[in-house]
Design brief:
Bound molecules: NADP nicotinamide-adenine-dinucleotide phosphate, zinc ion
CATH superfamily of the largest domain: Medium-chain alcohol dehydrogenases, catalytic domain
Structural class: alpha/beta
Shape: globular
CATH class of the largest domain: Alpha Beta
Number of strands: 15
CATH architecture of the largest domain: Alpha-Beta Complex
Number of helices: 11
Distance between the termini: 10 Å
Largest sheet: 7 strands, mixed
Order of helices and strands: EEEHEEHEEHHEHEHEHEHEHEHEHE
CATH topology of the largest domain: Quinone Oxidoreductase, Chain A, domain 1
Radius of gyration: 19 Å
Number of domains: 2
């Protein structure tokens, strides 16, 4: 099969012909129809995630059909349309895994990082990491929902926001453009925060009632003029950018970080305590959370705006994402 590998930390994408994988016990072999390019794939390209073994095929926004199942697979059948996201499998024993928090467990896996992912014609994944895809969504539309979508949908729905609340989304990229749509569909007063006016019209099309260009105005002051945010969901992977919105929180406001950066964010207790404000983070979720995300998307007519590229053009496709050119998610089609 054809696959796009990263062969060493910092390496380019190399197109290779390798053996089609065979599903082991509890695994499902997926014939890939679409795979989104997530900013977190930079972890594989740059070698910045702990423990990556090379060569590695990235890709954790995967939709395809079940080609074959291994022993003991009861949930999935050949021909079924399924997907796999960032969460690539877990143990059923340790406390974090039983709670659906996948850290500090050697059996908690990330697809496209712990094992080969969806920048390929086929991939295998454990059955507990697989989600069913609703008929209403095409494979290319559904793929970005398996990481970008689930992350922001799950973060928003577990954040405590209520209809009518002022919700700001910082960074209008793959995650951000879905977060804006979900927040609007959940009944929020929704603000898009972006670094330029280049996405202003698109943010309005996605339903945002307000747009803040951080190149023109201070985002915290602008949010305070709107009454102060109940929630600021930060998807821009930059510590200074995140720091610049903290003072935009209103009473009981929460800064919810999903951008995966090691950059420090500066915030003092006095910025938070008088207004009972908080700072927190959110990882993506389980395969069931993916199914919830897909169902909500189908129900509300939410879909990502995508640009499709053949697998052979992976380098160009990745460049679109990493250089902030994509509107808004690049999807590879093997
Ligand atoms: N928590 C999780 O489970 C999870 C899941 C998936 C991804 N992530 C992480 O979430 C982040 C976003 O991923 P993505 O796929 O949405 O990325 P993306 O498509 O590249 O979008 C990121 C957006 O952030 C803004 N941005 C980028 N660099 C910036 C900078 N230096 N300063 C200010 N703003 C900047 C840009 O928006 P504007 O043009 O609007 O300014 C850009 O479009 C990444 O860090 C990724 O690793 C986390
Ligand atoms: Zn991702």
């Amino acid at each position: 099969m054809k696959a796009a590998q990263i062969q060493e930390k910092g390496g380019d994408f190399i197109l290779v012909d390798i053996d089609k994988p065979t599903p082991q016990e509890n695994e499902v072999l997926i014939k890939v129809e679409a795979c989104g390019i997530c900013h977190s794939d930079a972890f594989v390209k740059d070698g910045t995630f702990p423990g990556i073994e090379y060569p590695r095929v990235p890709g954790h926004e995967v939709v395809g059909t079940v080609e074959k199942v291994g022993n003991n697979v009861s949930l999935w059948k050949e021909g079924q349309r399924v997907g796999v996201g960032w969460h690539g499998g877990h143990c059923f024993i340790c406390e974090p895994c039983r709670r659906g928090i996948f850290i500090n467990c050697e059996n908690a896996k990330v697809s496209g990082i712990s094992y080969d992912g969806g920048y390929a014609e086929y991939m295998c994944a454990p059955q507990e990491a697989i989600a069913a895809i609703p008929e209403e969504l095409s494979s290319a539309e559904a793929a970005p929902l398996l990481c970008a979508g689930i992350t922001v949908y799950n973060a928003l729905r577990n954040s405590g926001i209520r209809p009518g609340d002022l919700v700001a989304v910082q960074g209008i990229g793959g995650l951000g453009h879905l977060a804006v749509q979900y927040a609007v569909k959940m009944g929020m007063r929704t603000v898009a925060i972006s670094t330029s006016d280049s996405k202003k019209d698109l943010a309005r099309e996605l339903g945002a009632q307000h747009f803040i260009n951080t190149g023109n105005e201070d985002p915290s002051e602008a949010l305070q003029k709107l009454g102060g945010a109940k929630l600021i969901l930060t998807t821009a992977p930059n510590g200074d950018a995140i720091t610049s919105v903290v003072n935009g929180l209103g009473l009981d406001g929460k800064l919810l970080m999903v951008a995966a950066t090691m950059d420090p964010v500066e915030v003092s207790p006095m910025q938070l305590l008088m207004g009972r404000k908080s700072v927190s983070g959110w990882p993506s979720g389980t395969a069931k959370d993916s199914e919830d995300t897909l169902q909500f998307s189908a129900l509300t007519g939410t879909a990502p705006m995508i640009e499709e590229y053949p697998l052979e053009e992976v380098e160009k496709a990745y460049e679109r994402m990493i250089n902030n050119k994509a509107r808004f998610r690049v999807v590879l089609k093997p």
